[in-house]
């Protein structure tokens, strides 16, 4: 997007019905400059043959000139029965989450991704805060060691209902870990309206230079329509203006994992809404509409 440091991306968990190559082609064609790449089937399975998975993803991203952030919020990548489990704060199996995050750091390094993003998990009932803090710190320790060695930025996202639920919680985590430069913050813009003690703009400004990853979430019902109309709970102009004011130059990736059934149309209308907001803020020039992409041949795909 010319004239703005902020770059728009699209979370590919919102393209679950597309092959990775096709998803990259669509989002690039629509004008997105990067992707949030969630480690899971069908796009990059962290428990398949990882070198081959990474090489395929590298080719797909490179072919379309897309930057990337590695996301680790897949619902069932570790347990086919329990959503998001185990986590960094689970009673059992925490080492499996740490292993996944270490794999994600490796993927981010190999792909040249701008960050690896993760969250704490939901606290088990009856476990005290002191124990939960120790679990998070111990679980992230090896991940941060690997990230430091490989030059990868790790971003922790405050998530509603999880142990680390607010920006203040993530800032406290950084202090407990000695405030390492490569440990930064993921902010989900949709969550700012329901989960933070400050206004969305104030929260963005507080995160400021520690921002390493931004998501435009699905907290607003039918977000692509609401953003286009400028309605809903999130004042898009205000929060994007705050991002621009901080000098944030990373990716802001749309996160709409429940919209894969209409992914190209949703991605197109959301891009139109975001461009309109940035245009109102005087930060981008409106590009000409892209021409239709040329047809291409699909490789034979195994039945999933």
Mean pLDDT, to the nearest integer, reads: 89
Count of separate DSSP helical elements: 10
Task: Bin the helical content.
Answer: 40-55%
CATH architecture: Alpha-Beta Barrel
Strand residues, percent: 5-15%
The backbone outline, from C-alpha atoms, is globular
Termini distance? 36 Å
Q: How many E-type strands?
A: 8
CATH homologous superfamily placement: Divalent-metal-dependent TIM barrel enzymes
Q: Could you list the spans in which at least 5 consecutive residues all have pLDDT below 50? A: 219-232, 283-304
For the structure shown, list the relevant keywords.
8 strands; 40% helix; 304 residues; disordered C terminus; single chain; 8-stranded parallel β-barrel; alpha/beta; TIM Barrel
Description:
The chain is of the alpha/beta class and 304 residues long. It has a single domain (7-280), classed as Divalent-metal-dependent TIM barrel enzymes (TIM Barrel), CATH 3.20.20. Helix content is 40%, strand content 12%. The protein has an 8-stranded parallel beta barrel with strand order 1-2-3-4-5-6-7-8, surrounded by 5 helices. Helix 7 packs parallel to helix 9 and helix 8 (223-229) packs parallel to helix 10 (263-280). The chain is globular. Residues 219-232 and 283-304 have low confidence and may be disordered.
Structure summary:
This protein is α/β, with parallel strands linked by helices. Helices cover 40% and strands 12% of the residues.
Secondary structure blueprint with pairings:
Layout (H helix, E strand, L loop, with lengths): L6 E5 L8 H10 L4 E5 L11 H14 L3 E5 L22 H18 L4 E3 L10 H22 L3 E3 L10 H10 L6 E6 L3 H4 L4 H8 L3 E6 L6 H7 L6 H11 L4 E4 L8 H18 L24
Helix pairs in contact: 3-4, 7-9, 8-10, 9-10
